[in-house]
């Protein structure tokens, strides 16, 4: 992943995945590696540049950070054109902004994409246990609670606001039927009710999980019985190739740099799949 005849950089968020990549770099390479972090005006507790700066200082990288003001009206048409197909991930905009910042210094960047999908790092991977703890709550009441919290249009710039959003997502998941439906609900930026108001398609968002369950069974021979395995399989079949990797490939290439994802090395993926 480090082989290149041009300068190599690393997208450093300060989280576990990207910080570990910095720590794993050979010391001689580390001193010449440029790391990049961006923050947003009014980003609140989501601004992770302090963590990235701490990691870069500890390991002695050539660190670059910047604050950006996102003009969505100006940036969104460019990003949509780069993606070249529907992709409802709002993180495509900051992904391109950090790639564009890195492109001023390097032509290749490494990122921590894939670490959470390999090792169960997302909060939603704890959903099986969380739903067991919430089994006392009738699904109808959970759906009502989710609608109430969803109508608040709560932003996530503060820790308290994020907790409200997460509570709403958990209640929405509890109100769903099969586990795969509950799991996919955690990835929805809005409830099915909101989607029906927003899209001009004769399609029922509630039927998505059933369709994808059939696709998964065809792909794997049978659906995994373990709920955590079911969640990770969904990430590997759809979330990684159709969202994260699509977004990373298009937004880095759109900035004329090459993105590389060390965590998705085939041997490491096989090792992670064998872990309990």
Question: What do you see in this structure?
Answer:
This protein is an alpha/beta fold. Helix content is 54%, strand content 9%. It is built from 14 helices and 5 strands. It has helices at 16-24, 27-30, 49-59, 72-83, 92-102, 115-119, 127-133, 139-150, 159-174, 179-185, 192-198, 208-220, 227-253, 266-274; strands at residues 8-11, 34-40, 62-68, 108-110, 258-260. A 5-stranded parallel β-sheet has the order 3-2-1-4-5, sandwiched between helices. Strand 2, helix 3 and strand 3 (62-68) form a beta-alpha-beta unit. Helix 5 packs across helix 13 (227-253), helix 8 (139-150) runs antiparallel to helix 9 (159-174) and helix 9 (159-174) runs antiparallel to helix 10 (179-185). The chain starts with 7 loop residues before the first strand and ends with a helix.
């Amino acid at each position: 992943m480090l082989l290149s005849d041009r300068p190599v950089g690393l997208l450093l968020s300060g989280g576990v995945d990207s910080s570990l990549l910095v720590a794993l770099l050979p010391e001689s390479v580390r001193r010449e590696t440029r790391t990049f972090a961006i923050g947003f005006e009014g980003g609140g507790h989501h601004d992770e540049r302090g963590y990235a700066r701490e990691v870069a200082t500890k390991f002695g990288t050539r660190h670059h950070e910047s604050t950006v003001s996102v003009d969505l009206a100006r940036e969104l048409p460019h990003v949509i054109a780069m993606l070249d197909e529907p992709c409802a991930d709002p993180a495509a905009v900051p992904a391109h902004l950090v790639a564009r910042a890195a492109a001023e210094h390097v032509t290749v960047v490494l990122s921590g994409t894939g670490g959470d999908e390999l090792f169960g790092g997302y909060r939603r991977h704890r959903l099986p246990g969380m739903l067991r703890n919430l089994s006392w709550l009738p699904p109808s009441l959970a759906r009502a609670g989710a609608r109430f919290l969803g109508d608040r249009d709560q932003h996530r710039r503060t820790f308290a606001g994020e907790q409200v959003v997460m509570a709403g997502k958990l209640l929405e998941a509890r109100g769903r039927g099969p586990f795969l439906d509950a799991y996919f609900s955690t990835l929805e930026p809005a409830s099915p009710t909101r989607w029906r108001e927003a899209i001009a398609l004769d399609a029922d968002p509630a039927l998505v999980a059933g369709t994808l369950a059939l696709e998964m069974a065809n792909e794997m021979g049978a659906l995994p019985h373990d709920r955590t395995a079911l969640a990770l399989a969904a990430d590997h079949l759809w979330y990684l190739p159709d969202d994260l990797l699509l977004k990373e490939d298009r937004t880095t290439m759109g900035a004329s740099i090459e993105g590389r994802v060390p965590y998705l090395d085939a041997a490491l993926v096989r090792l992670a799949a064998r872990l309990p």
